Amino acid sequence: xxxxxxxxxxxxxxxxxxxxxxxxxxxxxxxxxxxxxxxxxxxxxxxxxxxxxxxxxxxxxxxxxxxxxxxxxxxxxxxxxxxxxxxxxxxxxxxxxxxxxxxxxxxxxxxxxxxxxxxxxxxxxxxxxxxxxxxxxxxxxxxxxxxxxxxxxxxxxxxxxxxxxxxxxxxxxxxxxxxxxxxxxxxxxxxxxxxxxxxxxxxxxxxxxxxxxxxxxxxxxxxxxxxxxxxxxxxxxxxxxxxxxxxxxxxxxxxxxxxxxxxxxxxxxxxxxxxxxxxxxxxxxxxxxxxxxxxxxxxxxxxxxxxxxxxxxxxxxxxxxxxxxxxxxxxxxxxxxxxxxxxxxxxxxxxxxxxxxxxxxxxxxxxxxxxxxxxxxxxxxxxxxxxxxxxxxxxxxxxxxx
Amino acid sequence: xxxxxxxxxxxxxxxxxxxxxxxxxxxxxxxxxxxxxxxxxxxxxxxxxxxxxxxxxxxxxxxxxxxxxxxxxxxxxxxxxxxxxxxxxxxxxxxxxxxxxxxxxxxxxxxxxxxxxxxxxxxxxxxxxxxxxxxxxxxxxxxxxxxxxxxxxxxxxxxxxxxxxx
Amino acid sequence: xxxxxxxxxxxxxxxxxxxxxxxxxxxxxxxxxxxxxxxxxxxxxxxxxxxxxxxxxxxxxxxxxxxxxxxxxxxxxxxxxxxxxxxxxxxxxxxxxxxxxxxxxxxxxxxxxxxxxxxxxxxxxxxxxxxxxxxxxxxxxxxxxxxxxxxxxxxxxxxxxxxxxxxxxxxxxxxxxxxxxxxxxxxxxxxxxxxxxxxxxxxxxxxxxxxxxxxxxxxxxxxxxxxxxxxxxxxxxxxxxxxxxxxxxxxxxxxxxxxxxxxxxxxxxxxxxxxxxxxxxxxxxxxxxxxxxxxxxxxxxxxxxxxxxxxxxxxxxxxxxxxxxxxxxxxxxxxxxxxxxxxxxxxxxxxxxxxxxxxxx
Lengths: 402, 166, 361
Fold this sequence. Notes:
The structure holds three protein chains of three kinds.
Chain A: E1 17-21, E2 33-39, E3 42-49, H1 57-62, H2 70-74, H3 81-96, H4 102-130, H5 134-155, E4 164-165, E5 168-169, H6 177-200, H7 203-209, H8 217-223, H9 227-231, H10 239-242, H11 263-287, H12 305-310, H13 312-322, E6 333-341, E7 344-352, E8 360-364, H14 368-378, H15 383-393, H16 397-401
Antiparallel strand pairs in A: 1-2, 2-3, 4-5, 6-7, 7-8
Helix pairs in contact in A: 3-4, 4-5, 4-11, 4-15, 5-6, 6-11, 11-15, 14-15
Chain B: H1 6-14, E1 20-22, E2 29-32, H2 37-46, E3 54-62, E4 72-80, E5 85-93, E6 99-100, H3 109-120, E7 124-125
Parallel strand pairs in B: 2-5, 6-7
Antiparallel strand pairs in B: 1-2, 3-4, 4-5
Chain C: H1 2-37, H2 56-68, H3 79-96, E1 105-108, E2 111-114, H4 123-130, H5 133-144, H6 148-179, H7 184-190, E3 194-195, E4 200-201, H8 204-207, H9 209-222, H10 246-271, E5 280-281, E6 284-286, E7 292-294, H11 297-323, H12 331-360
Antiparallel strand pairs in C: 1-2, 3-4, 5-6, 6-7
C-alpha cells in the first residue's frame, strides 16, 4: 500500500483534543507520559514527560562505597543488568588502572553478549505484542527465559545479578556452561527464524513499521543516538569496534548497518545483532582461556565466599575490603568509560577524591536520547504509530529515570 | 598512556582560553571559562580537525568544601565519529552563575541540561524549555548537591486538577 | 399452535444449545489454541473436586467472576445509554442468527419442521438490516462512557464497521445472482446440486471464489478481532469498552465471540454448502463412484445438523489461527484496504458474475 498520509487541512479550523498517553496506559508500562494534542487520530503536538521511576541513583551511589554501588547498576537497565555491572566495574578498574585477567575478560564478554540477546529479545517481544502480535511475543520471551534460566543457575539471580566485582567476578563459569549455552544458541537461532516468518516478512507488520518514526541521520547524531538506533540510520558506530574493551579485539563479528531510519529497520537490526551475539558467544566459549578470573591482588578483589567462611586469611581479606572505613580507595581523579550496552553507548563517569565512596557516579542513560526524540518521531503520525515508535526505542524506565 | 591528540590542537586553536588540561587515565580533559563555552563547542562541532559530532554526556559535579576555585564543574563529554576520539570539556561555575546552553547546537543537550539544572541548581542561560525533567514541579531543593541530606524526605503533593499542567 | 411451539423450541435450541455454548467453547478454544500455538499450557488452575477438565472449569470460574464483579459505571457517564449499550450489542448479534438454516426440513410426527428459526423471504436483507445495530451499541457505549479513549474507539469502530459492511454486502451479491434468491434456506438447498456427474458439489466456494476471498476479510473485520481489532487496540487506545466492567464487559466480549460464530455460520451457509454433506441425499449416501448407503430420514437430518456444526467449529478454529498469527492494522491502512482494494474488487465480482450468467443463458 502506498504511504500517502492524509494531512489535516489548516483551513478547516480543527479543534485539537488533548490526550494523556500514560503513565497508566498499557503501552507506556506506567513509567512515561505522553501529552498529545490530536486532531482525530493525527498527532499535532507531542510532549514526553518522564521521571516516574526516578529514585536517585547517583545520590545512592555517592552514599555507598565503590564495591557496593554495583547493586544499583542492576536496577538501571533491568533487562540486561549484567552489562551494567560490567560497565560499572570496567569504569572503576579504569579509574584504578588495573586489568582483569584474560579469562575474566572472556567471561564478562560472554555474559554481556547473553544479556544483549536477552535485551534485544525483550525489546522485540514488547514491540511485537504492542502491535497485536502476541504469538511472536511469547516465542521471544521463551527464548529469553532460556537464557535467564541459564544465568540464574550461574549467577543465582534473574534480575539483580550484581555478578561482577572490582577486579573480576563473583565466581567463574561452571564446567557445564559451554554445553548448556550451545543448546540455547541453537534454540535462539530457531526463534529468530520464527520471528522472521511471523513478523519481518509479514505484510501487515511491514506496513505498520516501514517509514514510521523517521529520524534523519543528522538528527540522530544531534540527539546523541547510539547503538541499534544509530546503526539503523546508516551510521556505523559501535563501541565494541571503535574502542574495543574486554576481549572484543580477538573476536570475529560484524556490525549490521541498515539505512532506512525507521521502525522496521530498528526492529530488523536487533534481529541481526542477535545473530552476531550468538557468534560472539560461540567464539568466546571456544577461546575461553584457562587461569583465574579475578585480579590476584588481595587489596583489590574480594576473596571467594568459601575462603571467607573457611579460612582466617580469607575472612581478613574480606573484612579489609568491606568493614567500616576499609575498602578500595581509587586515586583521586575522574574517568569516563563507555561500553556498548544493548541499547547503545553506556558510559560511566566516575569522580574519585581518594575516598571510600564515589564522589560522583554518573551513568549516561542510553535510552534518554531516544526518548527525547520521541516527540519528533510521532508528530504528524497517528495515535496508532506511537506504539511501534515507542516499542522501537526500547525505553527502559530504570535507566531513563535513574 | 596513549599519545595526546586533541589537547595540543585545542591549545593551538584557543590559546589562553584553555585554563587547564589533563589526561588522567587517558581521558583528555580541558577546562574552559563558561563565557567561551559556546565558541569552543561550535568549533568542536564544526572544525574539520576536531569534528566532535556527538555530545555523549552532560552532567555536573559538586565540589563543596573541597577547596576548588569554584563550587561546580559542568562536564561535557564529546565524541568524534570521524576521528574516533573522545574529549571532556569542563566549565567551572559558582552557585547562581549561568552557563550558556548548548541545546541549539546539540538537541540532546536539551534534556541533559534540564536534568543537570534541577539536580544541581545550575542555570543554563538561553535554554529553550527550562522545566524540571525527572523531578515533579513541587519538589524543593537540588538533590545532587553535596549539602542536600541523603535522608531528606518530601511530603506528598496534592493531585493536580484539570487545567493545572505540570 | 405447533408452529409457535416449534419456533420457541428452535429459539431455545439456537440460543441455549448452540450460540452460547459455541461462544463459550470458542473462548475456551481461544485460550487453549493460543496456548498450543505459543508453547504454553493455558488456563488450567481452577478445579472442582480435583477435576480440571482441560481448563473448562477455569472458563466457568471466569464466567462466575464476570457475574459477581463490581458493576462500575464512571461518574460522568451518561448512565442510561451506558447501561443500555451492552444489551443492544448482545441483542444485535443474537437476532441475526434467526435466518440461518442449521438443518434441512425435518418431518416429525407428521409435521414438517424447518430447522431455521425464521424463513423470511428477505432473509439475506434482514441480516444486513439488523447486524449493523451492533455498531450503534458500540458507538453509544463508547460515547456514553465519557472517556476520550473509548470515544476514539467508538469512532474507529463506526468507521471500520460501516466501511466493511458495504464490502460484506457487495461480495455476496454475486452469490445471490447465481442462486437467484435471497432466501438463505433455498441457497443452501441449491448447493446440494453437483457438477461433473456428481463429482463436485455446487458449493458457493466453487461458484464464487472471488466472493469468498472478499467476504472472508470483510466479515473478519466485522468481528473486530486481530488483525482488525482497531476499535479495541488494547495497546493503543484500550478500546471502546474501556469503562465497562463485570457483566457488561462480559456481554460485549460474548457478543464478539458470537459474532465469530455468526461469521462461521455465514461462511458455511453461503460458501460451504450450509448443512449439506457431500453426496448425502434425503435417502442416504450416493457416491459418484457407485457406492450407495440408505439411511433413515432422522439419521440424515441429524448428520446434516452435525455437518453444519462441524463446519462452524472448523471456521471457529480457523479464525483463531489467524487471530493469533497476525499483528494489527493501522486505521488508515484498514480503511484504505476496504475502499481502494476490496470494494472495487467486489464491484468487479458482481460485473463478472453478471456477464457469465448472461453468457450462459
